[in-house]
Amino acid sequence: MGLEVVAVGTEDAPAGAVAGVPVYADGTTPAGVPAIDQGFVSRTEYKASPGTSLLLERSAGREVVALGIGKPAALTLDALRRAGGALVRAAAHGPHATFVLGELGGLVPDASVSDVAQAVTEGALLGAYSFDAYKSDHRPPTLTRVAILVGDAARDEAAEGVRRGRIVAEATSLARDLVNEPAGSLPPSRFAERASVAARAAGLGVEVWDEARIVAERLGGLLAVAAGSTQPPRLVRLRYEPEGATAETPLVALVGKGITFDSGGLSLKPPTGMMTMKCDMSGAAAVVASMVAIAQVGAPVRVVGYAPLTENLPSGSATKPGDVFTARNGKTVEVLNTDAEGRLILSDALSLAAEEAPAAIVDLATLTGACVVALGDSIAGLMGNDEQLAAQIRAAGARAGEVFWPLPLPEEYEEHIESSIADMKNIGATGQAGALSAGLLLQKFVAGRPWAHLDIAGPAFTDKDRHYLRKGGTGFAVRTLVELVSSFPTA
Ligand code: BES
Ligand code: MN
Ligand code: ZN
After folding, report:
1. Listed residues 170, 193, 228: the one ending a domain
2. Exposed/middle/buried for 407, CB within 10 Å: 0-12, 13-18, 19+?
3. What is the atom index within ligand 1 of the atom nearest the CA of 342?
4. Which among 367, 377, 430 is the best mutation to test ligand 1's pocket, defined by most ligand atoms within 8 Å of the CB?
5. Is residue 260 in contact with ligand 1, taking CB distance under 6 Å?
6. Count of Cβ atoms closer than 10 Å to residue 159 Cβ
7. CB 3.0-4.6 Å disulfide test: which of 213, 258, 313, 460 passes with 456?
């Protein structure tokens, strides 16, 4: 990440930079931020919604842009994150930009100066992201430095937020890079290598299971999906322990779906349905990336991360609709649709996680098109067996600017996944509750541990630029997981 972000006090305010001034929807500015010409705002009918900007003045090397932050009463960290993203876009011609933070540190409910500086930093760095590994005419960006301008007394606290924001944004960019990389150059073995390199550098414990180990560990679901591919599967296991951790230190398990390409298998997807299916390892990418950030910020709990990795392809050796496999926990599963493969690889990884008796298991998966139909491309589905864990995730998501919406796991729908010949089948009732039948299947593998399932099929990938998101992988859930684990109760 080439862009430098720093917190500066009023004494060191840089001259000659594009100055971004946060502006409320009514044209006023927060305390400590210079007022702007209200007439101009009303003449241009600028609504100042978060993530938008408006050029206010340009004169002799100086530019001032309004950065919308919405209504004062509804000010959130994500409005500031979006404003950070809007600044780097408005100042892309560089080389320097300033975000005039003023007294905003005290204006967001339940947020400190550090939290606010963190959000602005995240927005700026995430907004500056681009994936240009395959662009032959790529030039380095012109904007090289963003200064967050605060009162002198708040500078050190803001600097701490900038540091955290950089860690989180860099991790999110790692997840985006992994998702954006074409599936042809990121088979399971390569994903595992890249994850190991990043994890080792962060000081995490790393294990990569090869095919022989996966067979020895009886991961029947992972093997059933991998059967159609010439690329061997992998399972990555990452471990974080805070200093002085004991057996009493709570353990959180993160499990991410790692289908490096989902063609649907023999239940082949139509061509348009597989155009973006390199994104089907977004859950695994989020687990790897969030654990890297967790190690860097130093969370108070132990964390274990599992990423089962395989392609889902059709071939002469592929699993056929109607085949039955035995999962790690001994349960048998009839595979009636090979395109419902995510739940199969997750079943084994959830069993492995549950065997460690964690205080919480959180799985993330681009699992169902049904969840996208229900909640669209900005909201993730949240299912599980533990109200408290669900509430913690929603609260962490609110701070991170990521929305998780609860969906039920009705006992009544258990019959949707009953098989006539095995313990369960991998699809639900035709045309009904597709996100829920996937969740109900996963639930059979968590051995009653506190568990939440995040269906990120919608928000993991975007086909257009949106505020601080860029077209492609979004790194969704990385920020929430870092927040969740950092604030996880230790007693
Ligand atoms: N990876 C897909 C789900 C998906 C769809 C992710 C769109 C991102 C965007 C998953 O493996 C899948 O194919 N699910 C099927 C399940 C069905 C066959 C029961 C689906 O949702 O159609
Ligand atoms: Mn599929
Ligand atoms: Zn899939």
Report:
1. 170
2. buried
3. 11
4. 367
5. no
6. 19
7. 460
pLDDT of the residue at 464: 96
Ligand 1 proximity of 341 Cβ (cutoff 6 Å): yes
Q: Single out the catalytic residue among 190, 218, 239, 269.
A: 269
Nearest CA to 105 out of 93, 92, 95, 118 is that of 118
Last residue of a domain, one of 151, 170, 189: 170
What region, left, alpha or beta, does residue 228 occupy, with left being phi > 0 and alpha being psi -120 to 50 degrees?
Answer: alpha
Verify whether ligand 1 is closer than 6 Å to residue 266 (CB atom): no
Query: Does the beta carbon of 372 sit less than 6 angstroms from any atom of ligand 1?
Result: yes
pLDDT digits (tens, 9 = 90+) for 148-196: 999 999 999 999 999 999 999 999 999 999 999 999 999 999 999 999 9
Mean pLDDT of the chain: 96
Q: Measuring CA to CA, how many Å separate 32 from each of 10, 103, 106, 149?
A: 11, 5, 11, 10
* 437 Cα nearest atom in ligand 1: 19
| 189 plus 165 within the same structural domain | no
133 shares its domain with 197: no
Q: Show the tokens assigned to 444.
A: 């059979």
Domain around 82: 4-170
Distance 340 CA to ligand 3 centre (A): 7
Same domain, 91 and 237: no
Q: Which pLDDT band, with edges at 50, 70 and 90, does 429 fall under?
A: very high
Residues 157 and 241 in one domain: no
Tell me the pLDDT tens digit for each residue of 20-43: 999 999 999 998 888 888 777 778
Whether ligand 1 lies within 6 angstroms of the CB of 456 is answered as no
- Looking at ligand 1, which atom is closest to the CA of residue 370? 21
Q: What is the pLDDT of residue 467?
A: 93
The pLDDT tens digits of the residues spanning 270-327 come to 999 999 999 999 999 999 999 999 999 999 999 999 999 999 999 999 999 999 999 9
CATH of the domain at 155: 3.40.220.10
- 416 CA to middle of ligand 1, Å? 17
Specify the pTM. 0.97
269 counts as catalytic: yes
Atom of ligand 1 nearest to the CA of 341: 11
Inform me whether the pLDDT recorded for 479 exceeds 80: yes
Task: Tell me how crowded residue 75 is: count the other CB atoms within 10 A of its CB.
Answer: 21
Does 491 map to a domain?
no
Residue 202 has pLDDT above 90, yes or no: yes
Long-range CB pairs of 36-43, under 8 A, 24+ apart, other chains included: 36/64, 36/66, 41/66
Query: Is 336 a member of any domain?
Result: yes
3-state secondary structure of 106: helix
Q: In which residue are the tokens 């944004």 written?
A: 169
Query: pLDDT digit string (tens) for 221-251?
Result: 999 999 999 999 999 999 999 999 999 999 9
